Amino acid sequence: MVGTGSNDCSCGRQLALDFQWDERFDFAGFVAGPNAEAVAALELIGKGDRRRVIYLYGEPGVGKSHLLQAACGEASAWGRAVVYLPLRQLVNRSPRLLQELEGVDVVALDDLDCLTKAIEWQQAAFHLFNRLQDAGRELLMAGPRRPAKLGLALPDLVSRLQGVLVLRLEKLGDEDNVLALSRRAQRRGLELPKATARYLLNHCRRDTGYFFQLLDKFDAASLQAQRRLTVPFVKKVLAEANND
């Protein structure tokens, strides 16, 4: 998605037709836990900290995509032009999509590991990196491993990535996970008891996007049945969803 700041560009507007960040992924809904440094760095980007390049890495489900999208939303709210690009959905298209983005204030490239077998995309990302730095813009990136461990074939791109602010996201502890899940439910107007949150964390995939999907199901089911989100009710909803 592209925020419509004063420096918006036609290429960015075209990308906005196909890709949007999820506005539910914001800083208020993210429990930092051991990741306070990363959250603080990305909040500064959103508010206009200039000429920064940040690379986030960590295991699936730790919140990399959440934080990239939160930074995009924050920057857009401040009137800055923003592009969020989920590379997993883009890598089969032409890397020319990365051209002419230096007019955008903040560019976020998610799932950088998807470029390991796409040398033309790696070259395009390298040139985008240079153009954004020359223009004094910000670039945010994320992947599952440190830059040197991504398996990228372009040494110049790896070298650039190793020279930026590299931040590792750690898994949350159990209590922080309960807090995060309860907070997401509360912001949707749902009351999620701690016992139910713990059940979900112990029996479901620990992934932010997946939990949002579950909350959608629970919201609809609880409204229809006029039931609270107790453990037995949640078990029933999950069983029905698995049978669909």
Automatic annotation (TrEMBL):
InterPro entries assigned to the protein according to its UniProt record, in alphabetical order: AAA+_ATPase, DnaA_dom, Hda, Hda_lid, P-loop_NTPase
Pfam families hit by this protein: Bac_DnaA, Hda_lid
Domain named AAA+ ATPase: residues: 50-171
Alphabetical GO biological process terms: DNA replication initiation; negative regulation of DNA-templated DNA replication initiation
SMART domains on file: AAA
The name this protein goes by in its record: AAA+ ATPase domain-containing protein
Organism: Nitrococcus mobilis Nb-231
